[in-house]
Structure formats: C-alpha cells, structure tokens
Inverse folding.
C-alpha cells in the first residue's frame, strides 16, 4: 500500500435493485476517496442515493435481487469483494456507523451501556468490567453528563442529543479509522445539532477518525466537511473541496440548490430562486444529464446519453456538466456579500 | 424589503387574531402536569405573517392547534375577528372555521389516500358550501376547483388523481389548495415545509408568499427552521418551553436579537457559507416541559444568567419599537 | 413499585368480583327458572328441593344468595353437587387441577421450544424452501382439530400399531400422578402433550416469524449489524429478545385459559381426569354447583395469569416500566 493512498477509495460504485424483472439503478458510478482524518460530505436530496451508498459500503444491503458492482478499497482491501465474515470483523471495529434517528437505532430493551459493552466485547478481548469501564470513559468523552449512571439507562430514557452522543460513543468504541454518519443531526434540534457537529469536528483530532458525513443540509456540510460530493438522482454531480465548491459551484444543480436556501443574513429576496419540478424517479432518470429537465442552462448537447463525463476544474474540483467544457462556466456564487454575515 | 410589509396598511389597526394569556395544560398520570403553552399573548394583524419558531417541546404546535380551537385551551382568550371564540360551541364555531384554516407538516397523512384530489377539495365546498345563502351548484364547484388548481400551480388534470400519485411538494400544494377552498382569512401553517427537500421547500415558501400577497391572507407560520421563518414572516415570535421569549419585527428579532436564547438559536443555524465564524454551542438540552426550571425557564442554559434569573420569571416587555423580550438582562451590545 | 402493584391487585379483585357476579347471575338469577330445581338435579324429591332452597337461601334476596354462594365456594368450601350424590365440588376441582396443570405445562414446554425454534429458523432463512416448509407445517398444525388428532393418535398407538416396537411402550389411557411414579407420569402424558401442543406450535411459530421479519426491518437491527455482530447474535440477542415481548404476553393468556379448562377436548380424548373433563361432565349432567365452581376456578386462573403477564411485560419491556 503506497503511503499516500487514501483510507477509502470508491470507484464506479453501482447499486441496483430488481423489481418485476427490471433492474432499477439506484446509484450509478459513484467514485470518491477519503483521506486520513478527512471529513467528506455526501450531500443530496432524498432519493439521491446517499444512504444506499453508505449501506453498500458497509455491506448492509441484503435485499433480494440487489446488484452491487464497482470497487471500494479500504486500506487496500476491496470491501465489495469481501466475504460476509471478513466484512463483519471490519464493521464496528474499523468502520463504524451512526444513524439518523438515535431513538430507533438503539435496541429498546437493553441499556445504553450494555449495547456499547457488547460492541467492545465482540471486537476486543475484554472482561465485562473492563468493557464497562471503557464505556463509561467513552460516554464521558462524548460529553454525556454522569456517564456512570447514564450507562445504566435505557434508550427511551435519554433525550435525543444524549442518545446521539451515546450512539457516537458506541461507534467510536473500537477506535474505527472511518466513521460513516448518516444524517446524524437531522432528528435533533438546532442548538443540539450545533453541539453534535462540534463534537464530530473534534473527532479527528482526538480519535484520528475519518468521517463520511451524509446529509441533505448544505449548511451542515459547509460548517463541517473538508471535501464535498454532491449527488443528484443517484449520480455524482460535482465534487471538490468544500471551500471551492461553495464559493464557486460549477454544476447548475449545486448552484441552484445553494441559491434556494433562504438566507439567514443580508437582504431577503422577494422570492426564493427555487428549482422547478422535483428529482426524477430512478426509472424515469434521463439518459443524458439527470438534471437537464430542471436546469435553466440545459441545451441540446445535455440531453443525449451518456451523462456528461467529469470535467476537472482543477485537481480538487470535478463536475459532471458540459458548461465548463463548452467554455461557459457558471459565475462564482458570491460577488460582494460573502462576508456580509450578521 | 420584506415582501409584505406594505400590503394592506388600511386594515392593519384591527387584529385578525388576538391571543390573551393562553394556557394549555395536560394532566399526565402520576399527577404531573405538562404546561405545553404557558401564558402566551400576542396579536396578528391583517395581512401579516407571524412566524412562530422554537425547538421541539416549546409548545408551538400545540399553540397552533389551540388558535383554531382544534384543542381547547385551559385558560385565556382567543379572539378571532373581534369575536371571542375561546368557548364557542362547535356549532357556532363551524361557520367561522371557513375563515381560518390549517396546513400541516405531513402532506400525505392529511389527505385521505382513497379519494381523488377533486373529491377531497370539493368536500369543504359542499359541507360549508353556501355563497350568499345559497348552496353551490355543481358547476360553481367545478369552477372553484379549477381556480384552486391555478392558485397552487397544479394542472387541472391533477383533480382526477389520487394523493399517492404526487410528490411531497405537490401534495403540500394540494393541502394548501384545500385550505384555500373556502377563501379563509387566516391560515395557521404548522411546519408546512419541513418534510420537503430544500429545492422543493423553496417552491412552497414562494407559493405561501405569493398567495399571501395575492389574496391578502394572514398567516401564523410555525416552523423550527429559522431561515424559512425569516424568509416569510413580517414578525417573529421565539418560543422556549411554552412561552414567548422574544417577539417583534423579523429583522429586530433575528438580526438585533436581545434574548440570549434567540442569539444562540440564530448562531446555531448552519450557514451554507464556508468560513462562517463558529460560535460556542449552547450547553445542555431543552429541559423537559414537565419539569420546567424555576424563574426564567432558560436560566439553566443561559450564558448570561445571574442569581435573579433562577427565581424571578421575566415578563415579556417592550425594549424598542416593535420589539419585546422576556429577559432581565437582554444583550443590548449584540451587533 | 409498591403502589402500581397494589393498584394491579385491586383491579384483579374487582375483575374477579365482576366475573363471579356475572356467572352467578347467569346460572342462578335467570328469571323464569328456579335454581333450586337445577341444583337439586332432575326429578329431585320435594324434601331435597326444600333443603337446597334453605341451604342456598333461594328464598332470600339475590345479594344474600350471591354471598352464600361465594362463602360456599371460597370460605367453607362445602359447595356440594346434588347430581353427583352430594360430592363436594371444591375438593373435586383440587384433585383435577394437578392433572390439567401437568398436561398443560408439558405441552407448553413443547410448544414454546418448538415454535421458537421454527419461528427463528424460518425468519433466518426468510423466503427459502425451509421457511416455506416450516410455515406450511405450522399451518397444518393449526388446521388439525385436536380431538380428531387425539383420536387418530389413540387409534394408532393403542390399537393398530400398539404391538409394534414403536408404540409398545404406550400405556393405556388415563393418568398416573407424578408422586406415584414420575416415569409412568411422563409415559402417560407424553402423547397428550404432543397432541395438545401441535396447534400452538403452528400459531406461535407463525406469529414469531412474522414478528421477527418485521423487527428485522427496524433501525436497531441495522445498528446491531453495523456493530459487527454475527448474524446469529443479531437475530437472537436483538431480534428474538424484542419479539419475545409479544410472544410472552400471548403465551400467558393461552396458558391460563388451557389451565382453566381449555384443554377439555384433549383431556376427554385421552381420559385424563382434569378440570376440562370435569367441566365436560358437569355440563353433561347439568351439575350447576360444579359448573359454577369450574367457571370461577377458570376465571381466577385467567385473571391471575393476566396479572402475571403484565408483570412479565414490565420485566421484558423497559419502556412499559416507565410508562406506568
């Protein structure tokens, strides 16, 4: 393994489900990489395939008739080619996952502590007492007040924020190299979300973990991620450093998505620049650019298959759009009021 | 310029809705009580959009339902168009219900899945259906349905289809059309866009704004998303544990916030701009509404709390024109 | 913890009172029918009638009659059956109860073990031929009437194939008390156990499978898998444990109604002198005191079991614990 190889390198990941004799392509040709201690944001609207991507990497899709192709090299090993047993030793130990709704993500009949102990003891040779000591330590590190007693409480007895902290404690219990967080703050209140995001930003310092953060919230991405991957209808629309992507989105979808968020500062627009229509169902996905029917810039060359190939703006910024290639890139997002925050 | 601050100046002096010291208390088992709404007063003027924001458990949804008498209040007064509706019997209330409607968060659950859109929309027209004392004719109903579809920008063909054939955004348009069917004056919208994707959310927010201007509607717009509330509201009320902590013109409340909670709330909203300065997040979580802190409800999490806050509950008081706050030590140096 | 328990006890007593009053009303306070004649039996002598009327207070107001009946049932326990030559019914039930308890407990062990095994296997191999086979078997078990199955088994083990090596160990119909000979007790009951359990194995395995399949779609099962647990552990420690909550509550009710006399058909078919058979005989001879006693016995059991199920629920589901 070369020294600078990324921790996880995904190439041409495709996931499709068979329904009534038809293969429905949920995710098409997704490629990305995550370096050590890096936070990558996977952002897209519902149905864009972001959760399916994560589940496929974890080997958690077991629906009948699913077909997963491509490659996902984690520390040089292909996750998609692994046996169930090999993958299981990685899961929880090397790659851990946290989920959107911490209420339903814990088994309701066991205490929080029991469930964290369980993960520790599956992967490490620890006695019950050692495991519990580690659990209490972890809960404390995640900012859970009175961790000793909290460990003995059941999931329903904790608030949403505490449950999510416990969830993160469980995910980090075996010091994973990669943490996959699927909408970790969506079910939380804003002030609690801020706490959890703060916690996640600090993870890489304290635990050295890389994070794949899946979210629909562009604000969360901007505040948390080093790199961003924008998904639209199962395909990558644009990927780049968060800095570049937010300052100068090159894909009309990224630009329109950012524009449609009501601003928290500056003048209020008379109307929000909304994107017309809604994302296509997988089976109705256009052969050419999937965004073309909703795109203000779409023209004849956008429509025929195959979907536009990636155009590298620079070594860190790629976009699946013809505009930059045709010499008519989008203007930068902010001209003057970038700094005009409250 | 907020989109609707100039509209309908003439009727501004008379409130469409006035809420006076409203309480809504639930009795739980074990003899505990939950004060979901804990003494709230405000008025909504004609043509105004009042945004109600707050985090979970702040009582904003309960309050929204109380406004339309979907729940009965425990005490206090609700006055709609000058008439006290707090204790009106259902029969007297029914004609008034035409003038006040509600739009809910879950666009699917609010529509009967086995009925066509046309039937769903025609129902209120038939039930309440008198125009100048006469029942609506079939053709009048058809015409009204066509108007409604046009108002919410859906094709007329949609009337013949079932709720599940639509996307979330389209279904919310249908819900709005249903609320509009009887030409109400007041619409209470409870988290109407929070289940929608961002790109669709913008469409619906625009629709709300357009309809408000076009039809001179008055809204109480309940949401947890500050950015959405900022976009649509003329005035904003920030709620915390059943009470309003800050109330006033949108710009005053969101950009010249004086209540420590409002400040923390606005700072906590993630901005889609890289390099936004990060503020230390508020510590702790919202206490259970069953066990509210004494004194100022926010004092347990407040960065500016002092000894007095623990026992002396602050009342909402004016601090500037169109700006009220319930805090002993408002943050005046902010900004 | 004490107060909810007390409240629960109070409820139980109240329910028992309701049932007893209802049963009493049905049997003894029906207008137009003289309970004296019913208790005394068919063609009873006038002296007997007079004696019964005095003893039960049928010439006094209804509440007094009810009180006398309850006293005879629970306190003096001298409620006697005239149809059956003055046999006291309470001791009779006490003699029958261990038989029923033996039968039902054994069957319960079989059906719990088998249905958990079948349900878990079927759920684990959802959609495979094994799943289909097990569920088909379950359906067959549910569809076979217990009295028919009992008769067929009797026919095979007692008659047709009794002399073959396979069934020569089967004793004749009847019951041997455990205290007399544990081995013979087991031999006399093993076939009734299986016959009684068949239907319940079918029902419970199908219910358990359906519950498990539903639970497998839950978020916490995905979490358990994401933790790197083995599929077996995920299914048993997280899935089955959660599914047991409904399983146990169902079990409690079924067990109680069987002990309360619901195993009547099995008892009759296999000649086991249990409570069910007693009820059957009482009904045959219209023995009102005995019917009253068996119904009350059954009610006590079901209500007690209900309380026990609630307690088990508290133990199994922490969410319910806090909701109380």
């Amino acid at each position: 393994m070369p020294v600078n190889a990324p921790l996880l390198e995904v190439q041409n990941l495709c996931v499709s489900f068979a329904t009534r004799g038809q293969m429905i392509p949920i995710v098409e040709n997704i490629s990305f990489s995550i370096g050590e201690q890096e936070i990558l944001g996977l952002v897209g609207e519902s149905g864009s395939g972001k959760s399916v991507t994560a589940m496929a990497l974890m080997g958690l899709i077991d629906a009948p008739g699913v077909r997963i192709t491509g490659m996902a090299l984690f520390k040089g090993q292909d996750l998609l080619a692994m046996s169930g047993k090999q993958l299981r030793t990685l899961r929880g130990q090397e790659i851990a996952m946290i989920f959107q709704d911490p209420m339903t993500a814990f088994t309701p009949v066991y205490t929080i502590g029991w469930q964290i102990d369980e993960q520790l003891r599956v992967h490490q040779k620890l006695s019950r007492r050692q495991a519990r000591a580690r659990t209490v330590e972890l809960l404390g590190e995640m900012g859970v007040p009175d961790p000793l007693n909290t460990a003995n409480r059941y999931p329903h007895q904790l608030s949403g924020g505490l449950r999510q902290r416990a969830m993160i404690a469980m995910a980090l219990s075996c010091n994973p190299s990669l943490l996959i967080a699927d909408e970790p703050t969506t079910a939380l209140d804003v002030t609690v979300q801020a706490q959890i995001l703060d916690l996640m930003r600090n993870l890489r310092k304290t635990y050295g973990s890389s994070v794949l953060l899946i979210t629909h919230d562009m604000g969360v991405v901007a505040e948390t991620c080093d790199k961003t991957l924008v998904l639209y209808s199962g395909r990558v629309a644009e990927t780049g450093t968060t800095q570049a992507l937010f300052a100068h989105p090159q894909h009309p979808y990224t630009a329109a998505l950012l524009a449609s968020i009501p601003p928290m500062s500056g003048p209020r627009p008379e109307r929000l620049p909304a994107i017309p229509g809604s994302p296509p169902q997988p089976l109705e996905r256009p052969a050419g650019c999937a965004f073309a029917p909703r795109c203000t810039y779409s023209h004849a060359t956008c429509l025929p298959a195959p979907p536009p190939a990636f155009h590298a703006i620079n070594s860190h910024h790629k976009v699946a759009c013809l505009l930059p290639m045709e010499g008519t890139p989008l203007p930068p997002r902010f001209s003057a009021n970038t700094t005009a925050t409250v | 310029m907020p989109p609707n601050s100039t509209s309908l100046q003439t009727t501004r002096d008379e409130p469409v809705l006035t809420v006076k010291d409203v309480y809504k208390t639930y009795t739980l088992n074990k003899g505990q009580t939950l004060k979901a709404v804990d003494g709230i007063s405000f008025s909504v003027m004609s043509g105004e959009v009042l945004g109600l924001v707050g985090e979970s458990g702040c009582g904003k949804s309960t309050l929204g339902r109380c406004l339309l008498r979907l729940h009965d209040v425990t005490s206090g007064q609700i006055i709609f168009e000058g008439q006290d509706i707090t204790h009106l019997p259902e029969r007297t209330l029914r004609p008034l219900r035409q003038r006040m409607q509600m739009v809910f968060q879950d666009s699917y659950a609010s529509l009967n899945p086995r009925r066509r859109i046309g039937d769903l929309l025609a129902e209120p027209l038939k039930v309440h259906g008198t125009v100048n004392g006469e029942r609506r004719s079939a053709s009048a109903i058809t015409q009204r349905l066509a108007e409604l579809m046009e108002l919410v920008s859906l094709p007329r063909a949609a009337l013949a289809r079932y709720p599940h054939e639509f996307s979330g955004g389209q279904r919310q348009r249908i819900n709005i059309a249903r609320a509009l069917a009887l030409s109400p004056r007041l619409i209470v919208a409870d988290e109407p866009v929070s289940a929608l994707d961002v790109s669709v959310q913008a469409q619906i927010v625009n629709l709300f704004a357009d309809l408000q201007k076009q039809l001179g509607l008055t809204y109480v717009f309940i949401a947890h998303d500050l950015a959405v509330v900022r976009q649509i509201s003329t005035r904003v009320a920030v709620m915390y544990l059943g009470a309003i902590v800050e109330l006033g013109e949108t710009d005053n409340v969101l950009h010249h916030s004086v209540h420590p909670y409002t400040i923390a709330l606005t700072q906590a909203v993630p901005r889609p701009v890289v390099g936004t300065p990060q503020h230390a997040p508020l510590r702790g979580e919202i206490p259970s509404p069953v066990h509210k802190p004494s004194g100022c409800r926010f004092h347990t999490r407040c960065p500016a709390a002092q000894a007095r806050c623990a026992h002396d509950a602050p009342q909402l008081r004016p601090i500037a024109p169109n700006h009220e706050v319930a805090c002993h030590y408002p943050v005046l140096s902010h900004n | 913890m004490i107060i909810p328990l007390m409240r629960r006890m109070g409820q139980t007593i109240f329910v028992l009172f309701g049932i007893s009053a209802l049963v009493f009303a049905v049997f003894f306070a029906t207008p137009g029918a003289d309970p004296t004649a019913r208790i005394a039996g068919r063609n009873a002598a006038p002296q007997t009638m007079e004696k019964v009327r005095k003893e039960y207070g049928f010439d006094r107001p209804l509440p007094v009659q009810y009180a006398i009946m309850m006293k005879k049932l629970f306190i003096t326990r001298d409620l006697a059956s005239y149809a059956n030559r003055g046999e006291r019914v309470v001791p009779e039930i006490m003699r029958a109860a261990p038989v029923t308890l033996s039968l039902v407990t054994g069957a319960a062990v079989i059906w719990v073990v088998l249905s958990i095994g079948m349900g878990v296997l079927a759920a684990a191999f959802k959609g495979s031929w094994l799943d289909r086979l097990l569920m088909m078997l379950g359906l067959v078990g549910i569809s076979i009437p217990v009295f028919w199955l009992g008769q067929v088994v009797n026919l095979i083990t007692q008659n047709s194939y009794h002399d073959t090596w396979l069934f020569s160990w089967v004793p004749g119909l009847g019951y041997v008390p455990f205290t007399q000979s544990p081995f013979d007790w087991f031999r006399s009951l093993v076939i009734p156990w299986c016959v009684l359990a068949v239907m319940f194995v079918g029902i419970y395995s199908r219910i358990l499978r359906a519950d498990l399949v539903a639970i497998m779609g839950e978020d916490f099962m995905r979490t358990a898998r994401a933790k790197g647990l083995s599929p077996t552990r995920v299914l048993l420690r997280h899935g089955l444990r959660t599914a047991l909550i409904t399983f146990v509550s169902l079990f409690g009710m079924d067990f109680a109604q069987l002990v309360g006399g619901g195993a009547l058909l099995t008892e009759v078919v296999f000649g086991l002198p249990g409570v069910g058979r007693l009820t059957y005989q009482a009904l045959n001879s219209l023995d009102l005191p005995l019917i009253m006693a068996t119904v009350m016995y059954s009610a006590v059991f079901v209500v007690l079991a209900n309380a026990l199920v609630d307690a088990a629920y508290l133990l199994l589901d922490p969410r319910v614990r806090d909701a109380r």
Notes: The interface with chain C takes residues 58, 60, 64, 84, 88-93, 96-97, 99, 101, 104-110, 118-119, 122-123, 154, 156-157, 170 of chain A (CB under 8 Å). The first helix of chain A runs from residue 50 to 58. Chain A is about 30% helix and 20% strand. The radius of gyration of chain A is 21 Å.
